[in-house]
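Late entry, written up from scratch paper. The run itself happened at the end of the previous shift, but nothing got recorded in the book at the time, so transcribing now.
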Amino acid sequence: MTWNHRIVAEEVDGETTFRIHEVFYDGDQPTLWTEDAVIPCGDSLQAIRHEYEMMRLAFFRPALHVHAENGKSVLKSDDSDDGKLDDYHRHEALDRAAIFAEQFESHIASHPQIELDPRLRSKAEEIADRLAALYQAIGNLDENGS
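Output as recorded:
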């Protein structure tokens, strides 16, 4: 059985609440999830950073919604995204590109092994330039994505 962190939406008293849960799968179907939302925790700073990074990945997956089916609660993928782009999508893509570029610079390009090897440094600079170009291209889109 595999698992990951997912955003789970549940309606209670007419209000929808989104929380991060650990979700367990049978194949690619979500079958179980933690009763309570999870928080990042660990026995060291490194462990809590790792847990946070794993939880952060939930934002790159579709939300799952709790539905009643044959008297049981089941999770189903969020089908509310109709494929139409709005300005939020552009802003979100900009934010993700900026985060990825910052993470690349902080954790890979600035690593001593990369910085001290001219061949690796050159490749890292090329990747950083391409990430910057992607960010600029996203920023130049209008609210319709064109």
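The first strand starts at residue 2 and ends at 12.
(Scratch paper discarded after transcription.)
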